[in-house]
Amino acid sequence: MTERAIGQQVRLEKVEFGGQSSGTAPLTWGQRATWSAIDRTRPGDWYFNFCRTMLLPRRYDLPQVLAAIRFVLERHESLRTRLVATDGEPRQSTSAAGVLEVEVLEVAAGDREAGARVAERYAARGFDYEREWPVRIAVLTKGGVPAELVLAFCHLAADYEGTGFLLRDVRAALAGRTAGLPPAPRPSELALYQESPEGRKFAEAAAAHWERSYRRIPVSMFTEGHHVPAEPRYQRMELLSPALAVAVPAVAARLAVSTSTVLLAAAGAVLRDRTGHDTCAMLAIAGNRVAPPTREIVSTMSLEALVVLPLEGVTGFEEAVRVTGRAAMAGYRFGSYDERDRDRVVAAESARRGEPVHPYCCVNDLRGAGQGVGADGVPTGVHPGELLERTRLLELSPLEQLSCRFCLHFADAPGALSIRLTADTGYLPLPDLARFLREAERLLVAAYDGDVPLAALGVAGPANPQ
């Protein structure tokens, strides 16, 4: 990328690192599932990239920031790990030493969007999994002084929650507080544990859960693929709602549940209304950082937990929230598993029914542990209904290929809660994406004042992006 192409002064700094571990190992369960999804999604596998940005106190110079980058490269094995091809499944290969080229970009003093632009550029390009380090890093300077750090991650190396620990370590390195830190957990050791007899015992228990659950779910949440698909087929839309930033934490506090449970319940209620399925099956991303050895690991721990919502006879939203809480707990309990076992279970159930069985319905809460809305600038002392006119509905860049039919993401945004929906328009036409997002918003805002009868769903609202 040239200076002219991105309109900023750019130079490359080489960060040489020497890690403490090297060698090859099998893929972890999380890596295996991610690699499978990547392989099914190519050439749109950039979809799985994600970015983190970090504002830097202006008291640090560039050599200090580069030294902090070197520290985390050496500390966290996953950042030095690439894939090596084999006759079957690829293996992870960790290098003890290497060089990462870091972009240093000088930006205007008042430019607050530069980091977002760099993150978008980094995330929009797929990784070379065998040759490229699984992280791209830029240091943004203002007046020659480091002001912001931008990191883009290959999903094989890390998940969103894990990179929070990495950013913590960057701050510790900048502040000179790294002495006495315990060794970072190593993904290669986790992979070997998962292949051990003890790991296999847990995997078998998880497989039994999937077998029980798959017998309860519909063939798919979206089974009528008779719509003429848009071009490109997979369309994306985002709802940015200040109203939800107020309503969701209030509903969660009143019902003594997490905000993730409230959002998942709303998704399930609207899905039931839209699909007619009284049993809703959703693949919710599970963080899987419960056991102490993996709690702070920088790796891909997140996997799809099967959450089965038995909503038959449920008439009010508060009851739906309680049902969702129990179902989510059951699903997350077995959210860590070997995908080869899941594939075996799915194949057997599909053969039993005589047709492929798969929810094709995913939900991912990107707000860390999902215990609260952490957006800055959330209005206070105002009823969420008064904020509905501030909602923005945006069309995002579409995808040519995706291995799902319905993918919902929750995230924080400045002064708002974001819900992004990616859908196969052969099953959910573009106007229905907007209707789903608006309907979920109306339900949650209404729940701010008390219970909401689910029979009130289905009233079409504004569907056009603003």
What does this structure look like?
The protein is α+β, with helices and mostly antiparallel strands and 466 residues long. The protein folds into 2 domains: 3-194, Chloramphenicol acetyltransferase-like domain (Chloramphenicol Acetyltransferase), CATH 3.30.559; 206-456, Nonribosomal peptide synthetase, condensation domain (Chloramphenicol Acetyltransferase). It contains 12 helices and 15 strands. The protein has helices at residues 3-6, 29-41, 62-75, 114-123, 160-174, 187-194, 197-214, 242-255, 259-275, 317-333, 339-353, 430-447, and strands at residues 9-18, 23-25, 50-55, 81-84, 91-94, 97-106, 135-142, 145-153, 234-241, 279-286, 303-310, 362-365, 392-399, 406-413, 416-424. Strands 11-10-12-14-15-9-13 form a 7-stranded mixed beta sheet. Helix 9 packs across helix 12. The longest helix is centred in the middle third of the chain and has 18 residues, at 197-214. The relative contact order is 0.15.
